From TrEMBL:
Keywords: Plasmid
Name of the protein in question: Uncharacterized protein
Amino acid sequence: MAGTVRNIFEAEAIALMREALELLDSGGGSDAAATLQHAIDIAESQPPMREGDRLDPETMTRILGPLDLAPMGHHLAAYPAKDWRTQGAPVADRGDWIHH
C-alpha cells in the first residue's frame, strides 16, 4: 500500500513538473527548463540517449508526455534527416583543389 501511495504522489509530482516545464518554456527560461527536464528524466528513470539512437513516437510520448499537450510542428516529426540537395545537381569536383 505504501508503495502505491508513493507512486501516486510521484506521478502527481512529475505531472506538476511537466506543467512548470511548459511555463518555463513559454517564458524563455531555457536553462531552468533544461534542468527541470533533466529532473523529470531522473524521476522517470529515463535512459540517456546515445549517438545513433532514433527517437520514435513511443519514446517521444514517454519523454514528453501526451503529445496532444505538446506544441505541434514539423520539427517534432520522428523521421531521419534528409539530404535536401537537389538530386542530380552539379557538384564541383574537389579532387584537384590540393593542386591550386
